[in-house]
Amino acid sequence: MSKAGAGSGSRPVWSAGQEGQGETRAERSPPPVSEQHFTFWPIGVIRSPFLEQQGTPIQPTASDGAEGLIEVFPPYQEGLADLDGFERIWLLYVFDRAKPWKPRVLPYRDQVERGLFSTRAPARPCAIGLSAVELMDVKGALVSVRGIDVLDGTPLLDLKPYVPEFDAHPGSRAGWLSESGLATRKADDRFVSPEIPDHTRDPRVP
Questions:
Q1: Are 126 and 102 in contact (CB under 8 A)?
Q2: At a CB cut-off of 8 Å and minimum separation 6, what does 39 contact?
Q3: What mean pLDDT is predicted for residues 138-164?
Q4: Which end of the chain, N or C, is surrounded by fewer C-beta atoms within 10 Å?
Q5: Whole-prediction pTM
Q6: Measuring CA to CA, which residue among 132, 145, 39 is closest to residue 92?
Q7: From the CB of residue 104, how many other CB atoms can be counted at a distance below 10 Å?
Q8: What is the Cα 85 distance to its own chain's centre?
Q9: Closest of 86, 93, 80 to residue 148, by C-alpha
Q10: Residue 124 near residue 95 (C-beta atoms within 8 A)
């Protein structure tokens, strides 16, 4: 993961050919979606009281009100304008210390393996996390939140306002979780990476 200021937004690794140099339209077209790669730069970093996966809340609702601080990097600070009018926000971030993904995992709240995409397991092909947290304050480039459930130093990819009209769907089915008898609230070390993950590897390969 590169440092702040290395770029903004996302950039595909392919680039279209320029007109007037003999390329056909097909040659200027991007490759199929399945062959595209994208690089993202963090817009900030998440500070929290949790230093290791074991003991970290598995969701914001299991955090017992743990507080965190979002440090937004200078190029993006102006984008925080008007955010303080919202009660909750979404955090999108990188699971930068999770082990490589597998198509089936043993989730925290079950005793049988489940398909990865039916779980919230952090070990994923595109290791992106999502948390809805309570917004406490915005001061300059610092965003104070409550209900944090991520590790200290986690790279922040984006934050968005939580809008009940758009985001709340009470009464929705919850699949196997509705039948699970486990009420696990804290993580263990089952998804811990044995080494610093290689962000340059092909995420489609387990």
A1: no
A2: 7, 10, 11, 13
A3: 97
A4: C
A5: 0.78
A6: 132
A7: 12
A8: 23
A9: 93
A10: yes
